[in-house]
Amino acid sequence: MDRRIPVLVVAGFLGAGKTTLLNRLLRRREARIGVVVNDFGAVNIDAMLVAGQVDAMVSLGNGCVCCAVDVSELDELFARLAEPRQRIDVIVVEASGLAEPRNLIRMVIGSDNPRLRYGGLIEVVDAEHFDDSRARHPELAAHLRLADLIVLNKADRVPAARREELRAQLARIAGPVPVHSTAHGRIDPALLFDVPERATPRVAQQLSFDELLDDHDHDDPDHHHLHDGYDSVSFTSATDLDPRGLVGFLEDPPAGLFRAKGAAAFGVRGENRKFLLHMVGRHVVFEPAPWSRGESRETRLVLIGSGLDADAAVTRLHATTHTGPEPLDEEALLPVWRYVPRDIDDQSA
């Protein structure tokens, strides 16, 4: 259950920096990334840019994925990337600058492949030309509201006051969708998916978050390190949680929370499984799974974000523990089941 491969959709209009972001992820080499490139037009520019860097490259030459008539073709591409021998950790679907994210999301969610799960929509926007982009593409507002995480790219090209103005503008358009400001497409993979434990750092010592974000492109004369700082908060509880409380926390998350992951134990009558949590932006998935042999029954969660109030977040999580003398009724799990993919729900019934 915990080895389902997340499929991330990276969208944004032409020039926003989608391919730059993808290349940054591929260059990090901390994970094996499979890519489906949404080519548009006769020249396969995006595929050329990532060629030689990706572990398992699949490219559609007959138009962008979201316009494909035969949905089974996308399933075939996913099947090739999801083969165990590929050892892929995450699949990234890079949308054409003219692609409609809603169609892509439907196609990913509609895949019958049991080894995959939808991992969220990342919408990349150009901080320098945001107003022009919105004027040319009125549908941008709808795309932003669909997003699970907004990446405000090229943030180094605008003054600090303008960045804050853009954040406020994005909040008015997209509501609670978290916004990550960055330059040159830099983003920590841990914000988007689980970096595998088999990955080893390039040096013997443990690297800090800031060091991980520094990919040392010192050959770039305009090299900057502008990005939102990160906070990481850990929460452990030997007392089972009330699932309604945890879902309430995730649906109304602390300000600045980008990502949450871990395993939760719920104090529900007859419930002996753990529930694996994957959260990117607003996209939440729970996956029931058996406890491993020798694994202690406890909740272990990690929160990652920018400007997180760690004490307040931990206090809120402690408030979700079930302290009553009797286990909760099975109906208490209903809020969690809303976030369990249907195929897993059917297998667990």
Overview of the molecule:
- This protein is globular.
- The protein contains twelve helices and twelve strands.
- With 349 residues, it is α/β, with parallel strands linked by helices.
- A hairpin with a 2-residue loop joins β10 and β11 (283-289).
- The model is unreliable at 63-71 and 199-225 (pLDDT under 50).
- Strands 3-2-4-1-5-6-7 form a seven-stranded parallel sheet, sandwiched between helices. A five-stranded antiparallel sheet has the order 8-12-9-10-11.
- The two termini are 14 Å apart.
Task: Outline the fold blueprint.
Elements: E1 5-11, H1 18-28, E2 33-38, H2 45-50, E3 56-60, H3 71-82, E4 90-94, H4 101-109, E5 116-126, H5 130-136, H6 140-146, E6 149-153, H7 160-174, E7 179-181, H8 209-213, E8 231-237, H9 243-251, E9 257-264, E10 274-280, E11 283-289, E12 299-305, H10 310-318, H11 334-337, H12 342-348
Parallel strand pairs: 1-4, 1-5, 2-3, 2-4, 5-6, 6-7
Antiparallel strand pairs: 8-12, 9-10, 9-12, 10-11
